[in-house]
Amino acid sequence: MPKNKRILSVIFSAAVFLVLEIAAFAMLNNSGRFQSLWFSRIGHKVMANVWGNSESIKDYFGLKEKNQELMVKNFQLSEELRAYKEKYGLPDVTASDDDFSYLLAGIIKISRNSQHNYIIIDKGYEDGVTPQSGLITDKGVVGIINSVESHYSFALSLMNTAVSVSARIGRDGGTGPLVWDGKRSNGATLKEIPLHFKFEVGDTVWTSGYSAIFPKDIPLGIIDGSKIINGAINECSVTLFEDFKSLKYVTVVTNTGRDEILSLENSDIIED
Amino acid sequence: MKTEHYFLTFFILTVAQILVCNYLNLSHYITLSFLPLLVLCIPIRYGTIPSMLVAFAAGLSVDIFSEGIIGLNALALVPVAALRIPIIRAVFGTGLLARGEDLSVEKHGLLKISTAILISQSIFLVLYIWADGAGMRTFAFNLLKFLCSLGAGFVLSIFILFSIFSNIKESKWK
Known about the structure:
The complex is a heterodimer.
Chain A: H1 3-31, H2 33-61, H3 63-88, E1 100-110, E2 116-121, E3 134-137, E4 140-148, E5 153-160, E6 164-169, E7 175-180, E8 187-194, E9 204-207, E10 219-229, E11 233-240, E12 249-255, H4 258-265, H5 268-271
Helix pairs in contact in A: 1-2
Chain B: H1 3-23, H2 35-40, H3 48-65, H4 72-82, H5 84-92, H6 94-99, H7 105-108, H8 110-133, H9 139-165
Helix pairs in contact in B: 1-3, 3-4, 4-8, 5-8, 8-9
């Protein structure tokens, strides 16, 4: 028998088989009380599985939208919490300085594979972003805005060897510049810590607030090791809380008093 | 066995099966059926589709006239007809199919015939017991019912085979 004819014959046989079996099932469903219940139960189970799976797929494709909503909600709640803590003078106020404003932004593009990584965000000067604004998340510092367009901004990532952030060990420990270690997506080095400041592995590293870019007391990471450089200073290895591999949203933090600070720095009094 | 004789025998045995279902209730654990044998013995020259139609008709007749659940025998018997050719090919080899030869105890041996009957009966009983139980019975009950029914059905099928279908002089050669 030719191959095509055989295939057609098999398909036709299968079709007849299905028709006869479906007919038998239908008759069984109508004539037997238990069989009717059985079919109904099987039907419900199948439908539950089908609907459950289709809902799961639908939910999966709706995750991006949900994430966006949650991030906006989270940002609003953080802002409210910050305002309450400021109002009632509660301790542990993150970014308690009135001089900072905050703006939620999504990441359009992020590079992670070079020594000079960058981030492009979906907010620009029309949204209030200015150069030298900071990028943070609830897990730490992400980068610094370098240039601004109307709707987009270009930032140097903390995973960029040209970026350093003023950081402090513990609440009142030694302060020094924190730079990316150039190896890990969540690794950094805290430099120039004087020897007389004591610390231990596991201590938290915070922003010091000694710059016009970031508010103080933003948690950055924990110390996972240290070494003495030239017998004069300590250099600490830091594991950052923020892992750049999973970054989707950031908060742009802008120092509203930055112009005054710069003006003071550039004034004749200082120059003299 | 000539074709017209076969279908007459098929008809009479189907009526016999209806009578067995109505009047010979041995136990809850035994479903006495020789319908798989009838399907297995449909002349080889009839392909799968006619076999399935005949099986469906026979199963439905038994369902309707034996006060059972309509569709149960038909549901279990159609797959036996659908798998009839593969079963014959697996047990007797391709030679029998190529020659268009009908099954015969004397020609093919009791062992092979018994194997084919057991496979057909098993397919039929698995589906029958599964659909009859409708998920209400335990696995142990179904297994016991399957084994008892297989044994009883096999003995009855062999008896029918020897007494009615077995006739070497009438086996067809092409």
